[in-house]
């Protein structure tokens, strides 16, 4: 029953005053029998009131407006979580019975959303691969594990080669990307054979042996399996998502799980800073945000001059698309 502490800080600095910064945040961890939220603090500049609601996919979403003129906005999320191992599927029901059950739920809410494919020209190339990887007598569980392994082995993990706006076809051509790209390709494969699949955003915590993407924001997929429910699959690490994976939100794709969205009034140029620290509860205290910001601050520009990880790029895109009203 490991306990983890996570600090996720987003900082906006403006070169002149702005106002009426309205934001939507999905920084609230999912709470269930496998993930116990021990403590969660949100500290936001100006201490605005945060109104929360639960969206269509069951995610807790916060919204707030910082109305006073300001040249700095910091969203600081500090989280302590205890996780419990999730039992693996028994998978003893006949394969044909399980596939029949999946066929029978394909027009039932909420599975419809998680079976709908996004536009992807590469489907004509991926479909025969899917049919080759999957054997005729494989159960949905066995199929999901094989697809996870395929993505892990056939896509190269390279930070900075994609952004959240990179299309599925571009990822398919690159055969490279980061966790969110691996998750999106895996979901395409699962949906092709009728297995509902959803996107998961969160964090991956150190497991002493090292994992891709640990100590940062992370993404993976969940597959719906008959007689079991939703099983997390991490194609970035070719493993089942379990007690080292902290879940924040689920949805059809990345856009449903965006951690921060917002608009503001003003024409000021700004600098965006994002930092995430993840560790075990019994380790040294998390660093002060200012200590991390010194190494991660960067200006928001149209053409980045150096590679950045996909989460930083996402935050950059969000800021570029904000409505700046006089």
UniProtKB/TrEMBL annotation:
This is Transglutaminase family protein. Pfam families: Bact_transglu_N, Transglut_core. SUPFAM superfamilies: Cysteine proteinases. The lineage of its organism: Bacteria, Pseudomonadati, Bacteroidota, Sphingobacteriia, Sphingobacteriales. SMART domains: TGc. It comes from Mucilaginibacter psychrotolerans. Residues 171-237 form the Transglutaminase-like domain.
């Amino acid at each position: 029953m490991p306990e983890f502490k996570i600090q996720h800080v987003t900082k906006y600095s403006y070169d002149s005053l702005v106002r009426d910064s309205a934001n939507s945040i999905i920084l609230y961890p999912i709470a269930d029998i496998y993930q116990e939220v021990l403590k969660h603090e949100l500290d936001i500049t100006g201490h605005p009131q945060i109104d929360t609601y639960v969206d269509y996919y069951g995610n807790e979403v916060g919204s707030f407006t910082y109305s006073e003129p300001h040249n700095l906005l910091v969203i600081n999320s500090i989280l302590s979580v205890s996780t419990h191992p999730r039992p693996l599927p028994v998978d003893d029901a006949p394969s044909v019975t399980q596939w029949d059950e999946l066929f029978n739920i394909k027009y039932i809410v909420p599975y419809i959303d998680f079976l709908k494919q996004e536009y992807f020209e590469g489907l004509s190339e991926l479909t025969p691969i899917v049919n080759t990887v999957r054997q005729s007598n494989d159960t949905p569980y066995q199929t999901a594990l094989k697809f996870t392994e395929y993505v892990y082995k056939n896509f190269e993990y390279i930070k900075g080669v994609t952004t959240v706006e990179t299309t599925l076809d571009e990822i398919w051509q690159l055969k490279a990307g980061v966790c969110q790209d691996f998750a999106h390709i895996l979901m395409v494969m699962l949906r092709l054979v009728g297995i509902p699949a959803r996107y998961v955003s969160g964090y991956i915590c150190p497991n002493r042996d090292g994992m891709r993407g640990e100590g940062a924001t992370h993404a993976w997929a969940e597959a719906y399996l008959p007689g079991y429910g939703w099983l997390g699959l991490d194609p970035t690490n070719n493993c089942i998502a379990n007690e080292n994976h902290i879940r924040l939100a689920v949805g059809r794709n990345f856009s449903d799980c965006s951690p921060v969205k917002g608009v503001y009034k003003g024409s000021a140029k700004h600098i965006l800073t994002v930092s995430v620290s993840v560790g075990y509860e019994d380790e040294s205290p998390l660093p002060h945000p200012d200590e991390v910001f010194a190494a991660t601050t960067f200006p928001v520009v149209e053409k980045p001059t150096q590679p950045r990880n996909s989460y930083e790029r996402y935050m950059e895109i969000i800021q570029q698309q904000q409505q700046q009203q006089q």
